[in-house]
Specification:
Blueprint (H helix, E strand, L loop, with lengths): L5 H141 L5 H32 L4 H39 L3 H19 L13
Helix pairs in contact: 1-2, 1-3, 1-4, 2-3, 3-4
């Protein structure tokens, strides 16, 4: 075996040195490459994370917007439902009011008809009583006239009373038609004004007849006092007393008053 000389040893050492240096440099280059790779990966991760956060934010905003839209739609639907329900209730209330108004109208018609019938009956009774007294007075005036008593003034008053009674009876014969027209009108209460006017006119005619009957009786009394002859005067006074009693039986007071509540 050939022995290793000093120069050869130096060459080997140099070779080993360069090999070691090359390994170190290669290792450093690998470290640098790994570091850069790691940085790039981390950057990519950060970018991905940021992208994920942004996506989450967008999703959250979209979800919130969708929720607001749904809430607005629900509120609009609720308002529409409430409005429809309110209109329905108003329609039902209006229908109920119309039904009550119709019922009240029917009751008013019946009430007005009954009131008119009561008033007409009272006036018919008063007119009949007055006609009876007028008939009796005419008979007695005829007898007193035959006995020589001046009955001109008494007959005139009685004729006026008869005219008033006749007018009242004629109006009463037509009053049912006037009442029927009023109760079938759209507004019976307003139409009752005409009926009331008719009853008022009849009442005044009956009152006039009552006044004229009393005037006729008073005229007979005055004629009897003025008549010469004691026998004739006594008979006249006796007859007039009976006639006056009949006349006082006829009254036209509250029984012929017409009122509309």
């Amino acid at each position: 075996m050939k022995p290793i000389t000093y120069p050869t040893l130096i060459s080997i050492s140099t070779l080993i040195f360069f090999l070691l240096a090359a390994q170190v440099a290669f290792a450093e280059e690998n470290i640098a490459i790994e570091a850069e790779t790691e940085v790039d990966i981390q950057a990519d991760d950060n970018e991905s994370e940021r992208s994920g956060v942004g996506a989450n934010v967008r999703d959250t905003l979209e979800a919130r917007e969708e929720a607001l839209t749904e809430r607005a739609a629900a509120q609009a639907e609720a308002r529409a439902s409430t409005s429809a329900a309110r209109e329905e209730r108003q329609a039902e209330m209006q229908e109920q009011r119309e039904e009550r108004r119709a019922e009240l109208s029917e009751r008013t018609k019946v009430r007005v008809t009954n009131l008119a019938a009561n008033i007409s009956n009272r006036m018919d009774t008063a007119a009949a009583r007055m006609q009876n007294i007028i008939t009796r007075l005419e008979s007695r005036i005829s007898k007193l006239e035959a006995s020589g008593l001046d009955t001109t003034e008494s007959l005139a008053a009685l004729a006026s009373a008869q005219q008033s009674v006749d007018a009242a009876v004629t109006a009463l014969a037509r009053i049912d038609v006037t009442v029927q027209t009023a109760v079938t009108a759209e507004d019976p209460r307003a139409a009752w004004v005409e009926v009331k006017a008719a009853y008022t006119a009849i009442r005044e005619q009956l009152r006039t007849a009552h006044t004229e009957i009393k005037a006729s009786v008073q005229a007979l009394k005055d004629a009897a006092r003025a008549n010469d002859g004691e026998r004739g005067s006594a008979a006249a006074v006796q007859t007039n007393s009976a006639v006056a009693t009949d006349a006082e039986e006829t009254t036209v007071t509250s029984e012929t008053e017409t009122t509309v509540e």
